[in-house]
Queue: 2 jobs
Job 1
Amino acid sequence: MTRNALALVLESPKNLQAREFPIPEVGEDDAVLRVEACGLCGTDYEQWLGHMKDWGGGMPIIPGHEIMGFIERIGPLAAKRWNVSEGDRVAIEPIIPCGHCEDCVRGAYTRCQSDLGYGLYQSTAVAPHLWGGYATHVYLHPRTMVHKLPTNLSTEVMTLVNPLSNAIRWVYEVGGAALGKTVVISGPGQRGLLAAAAAKKAGASNIIVTGTSADKSRLELALQLGATAVINVETEDPVARVSALTGGKLADVVLDVSAGAVAPIVQGVDMVKRGGKIVLAGLKGTNPLNGFPVDKVVLREVQLVGVLSAGWESTELAIDMIRTDAEKLSVLCSHMFTLDNGTEAVRTLGREISDGKDAVHITLIPG
Ligand SMILES: [Zn+2]
Ligand SMILES: [Zn+2]
């Protein structure tokens, strides 16, 4: 059979081109995925701009690392290992762990030093070429991390698996949001909003989301998803507000998911209680953080932790949470584009263009 897969290849910055690739033959222990959808996140826009060109294989590359779809063909060993069969609906993790580096053998496979994975890692020069979700088909390497998905939920809401797994790891697994805790989330992007929902699910008492005047509709979404209070940092002093909202007890955890802004980190030091945790997930590019109050961190034993991705457990928790809370979470799904409008999808993500509706979660489907 000589059917081809169609993919969007980022040939150079801001230049996505449709290309065909042969659908790979499967062996004993690998598979081919027919893509149902690929979620977009801020990284996709950075990549499109050309800011990620030192990462992995560079260009030309098929972007898209939040991939879900149906098993089209699978070898017998892979079917056994992943416990899936042809036709099953699955999500795959962005990272393909090597299984042998120091981080992998310690169980921290998301920090795998081999830098293999989907969307951001291998260029199209690496056979069998189909390493990204902006495509009709994706190659499933023998070490791909595969999660079985329920079949009764919509494509759009199911593509929240990846961002929700991130949010669950950051606010719950690392941040420790749980029964009775106070959580502050800086930045109401899709991950911040999903973190508010995850903190609610975990039982946190106070869930405070901060943003700016431009985030008005997102702060409203935060309240719908479980936030107990929202703060516009342009009109209110966020530190004083958090203190007032908690009766002076301050926050157990501050999660920073804001992009570019460094003020929330400095404010976070004053918002978090002694021994509390600040979880850093928002990238700041080259923005310097001068005047960081190191002494407050030392004297109050504040913990600072950086987080990047999710993992097996948080992905399973995300699937389970979507299963139970699909309707509530679906308010985040604002846009869906087909592959032939891939550039429009990425530009909408970067707020370069707008159809008037706030782009919170964008899904790309083959069409
Ligand atoms: Zn992402
Ligand atoms: Zn490894």
Job 2
Amino acid sequence: MSENSRSVAVIGAGTIGLSWATVFAAHGLQVRLTDPRPDVRQVLEESVRQFARTLPGGPRDAEELLGRIEVAPDLEAAVSGVDVVQENGPERIELKRELFARVEEAAPAEALILSSTSGLMPTELSRDMRTPGRLLVGHPFNPPHVLPLVEIVPGERTEQWAVDAAVEFYRGLGKKPVVLHREVPGFVANRLQSAIFKECVHLVLEGVVDVAELDEVVTESIGLRWSTQGPFESMHLGGGPGGLRHLFEHLGPGMSRRWKSLGQPELTPETIETISGQVEERFRDRRYDEMTEARDRAQLAVLAAREAARGEGDG
Ligand SMILES: NC(=O)c1ccc[n+]([C@@H]2O[C@H](COP(=O)([O-])OP(=O)(O)OC[C@H]3O[C@@H](n4cnc5c(N)ncnc54)[C@H](O)[C@@H]3O)[C@@H](O)[C@H]2O)c1
């Protein structure tokens, strides 16, 4: 954690903001949270109590974390005097621009301004700012209190000191920041997820597999593989001793034909009905908080196993 980062404003107390608030408090930061939702205090308490059970490094005392998170009466009060602002409002560019205009007025001039946006371009987000040099995207992968990745996406006018400060800030939280060389809609992780999810929807619509079978195919193969070796490393090994070059020569023509045959489903009302219907039927007896906690425990176990395996390999 940067020596300079002691207090953080969290704008937006939804799925991502509440998770970030827990992470920040768990690392000793003073947190100020702002959201116009009337139940903000209640969701804060419920979420921190849940997330504190599944933090990397072991469970934490939720009451201690809640003691570091203050609900501010408005955005101006939240950002006043803080070192860092993490914005997690709704994914609407006009609204985010309005929030950043208010942040710019009320936060200290040197405060770092980070947006959790899943896909909006930082240059667009900072379009109306007087000090765009300090705004950049710090995009977590859900849930931020468990998964390590934060994509750092500078805009055209982001200054280098802000990129460096963001990297240092997230590293201090135990995260794995990856700085993109340039902004692109959806960044990297969500573009990949979109490409694969599009084909998932296509395969289910075509009746090749149902949603449960599709999920099983992924968790028993690509999911497991990619949690330890990325796509390029995996393919390099898949080519045998000749590596990726041999794989391209040997299997490339088939791969290339397959690229052309990938589906192009549209998110029509019928598609939404078919896919959502199958998923809802499958999980109809499961509660959201029970499912998210089970997910977090499983992912923490994978992270711990991966760390242990890497440690053994290094030794
Ligand atoms: N859900 C994900 O998987 C995910 C992952 C990574 C990043 N993100 C990004 O994080 C951001 C938040 O997404 P989410 O899923 O938490 O959404 P969400 O709908 O759960 O939460 C958004 C919150 O913003 C609040 N809000 C509305 N107006 C506000 C205002 N004027 N000031 C402060 N708060 C306000 C809402 O009341 C709500 O609680 C989005 O930009 C999204 O793209 C989401």
